[in-house]
Amino acid sequence: MRRAVCPGSFDPITNGHLDIIERATKLFDVVHVAVMINKSKQGLFTIEERISLIEEVTGEFGNVVVEAFHGLLVDYCKQRDIPAIVKGLRAVSDFDYELQMAQMNNGLSGVETLFIPTNPTYSFLSSSLVKEVATWGGDVSHLLPEPVLGALAGKLRRP
Questions:
Q1: Which residues are within 8 A (CB) of 80 and not within 5 positions of it... i.e. 6 or more apart?
Q2: CA 159, CA 141: separation in Å to the nearest integer?
Q3: How far is CA 50 from CA 29, 112, 142, 153, in A?
């Protein structure tokens, strides 16, 4: 069985993330979406909320497993016998950082990293940017899956 992992914080998952995950599901039998826990950062969504939203928006693919993970990504891969990491690249600046990570991960464990170029429609998109624009009342409806848009609106409502 061909297995891969798409890691990230997904706070929240965007259409750009979803595009990479969907494309990976066509290349691999099982795609794990690893919601990486960074205890030094406070996310807008809880880990449980992120997992639930990702499960909801990837359910139609039928071959996605979503779970949280804390620690090294290569350990996640070893524990689940996953030989490949799939990452989306938006720009050259992403490549510089991701290449270093890919080389480190391969050196530590032999896990390969596959880069998928982002759909140009989403080349500027990041969760941080979406949250910032939405916080100031900007329209992000075309950047998020519908369930995520609703959840984000609920998080940003003022009392």
A1: 3, 5, 32
A2: 22
A3: 23, 26, 19, 14
DSSP string, 89-136: E-SHHHHHHHHHHHHHHHHHH--EEEEEEPPGGGTT--HHHHHHHHHT
* CA–CA separation, 24 and 17 (whole Å): 11
Cβ–Cβ < 8 Å for 87, 113 = yes
User: CA–CA distance from 23 to each of 5, 63, 78, 151 (Å)?
Assistant: 12, 12, 23, 24
Residues 4-40: tens digit of each pLDDT: 999 999 999 999 999 999 999 999 999 999 999 987 7
Question: Helix 146-156 vs helix 127-135: angle between axes, to the nearest 10 degrees?
Answer: 50
Q: What is the model's pTM?
A: 0.94
Residue linked to tokens 């795609």: 31
pLDDT tens digits, 46-103? 999 999 999 999 999 999 999 999 999 999 999 999 999 999 999 888 899 999 999 9
What is the longest distance spanned by two Cα atoms in the chain? 50
- Bridge partners (DSSP) of residue 89 are 117
Residues noted as catalytic: 17, 41, 90, 127
